[in-house]
Amino acid sequence: MAIDFYEAQQESLGAYFLDSLFSDIDSLALYAGIHPKHAGRFHRMLAKRFPFAVYYDVNGETVTVVAILDCRQNPASIKERLR
Fold first, then answer.
1. Is the Cβ–Cβ distance between 24 and 18 less than 8 Å?
2. Cα separations (Å) of 37 from 19, 33, 41?
3. H helices of the chain, where?
4. What is the pLDDT confidence band of residue 83, given thresholds at 50, 70 and 90?
5. Which of 2, 40, 42, 64 is the most buried (most CB within 10 A)?
6. Any residues with CB less than 8 A from the CB of 16 and at least 6 apart, and which?
7. How many Å separate Cα 19 from the centre of its chain?
8. Which is nearest to 46 in space by CA: 30, 57, 35, 33?
9. Nearest to 45 by CA among 59, 62, 73, 25
């Protein structure tokens, strides 16, 4: 898991990673829908501090986070996981 990876790199970095992602997700309350759609299906917001992307869908006023994926993966693998 990514949290464990970052925690192994430096103490408290795993918690910082998690806080950072939650902050990015919280920003969707204001900015949902402005991010480009990836493969025409889900919006993709790049995390501000780590190489991760938040994939989400907007239905009316409801935002659903579908996946949070490491951007360093093979793009074909990302497309497959989003199916």
1. no
2. 25, 9, 6
3. 2-9, 13-26, 28-31, 75-81
4. confident
5. 42
6. 6
7. 12
8. 35
9. 25
Q: For the whole model, what pTM was predicted?
A: 0.92
Amino acid letter for position 67? A
Tokens of 57: 């869908």
The CA-atom distances, in angstroms, between 30 and each of 4, 27, 34, 60, 75 are 30, 6, 10, 14, 28
| Residue 43: CB atoms within 10 Å | 21
pLDDT of the residue at 40? 79
Architecture label for domain 2-81: 2-Layer Sandwich (3.30)
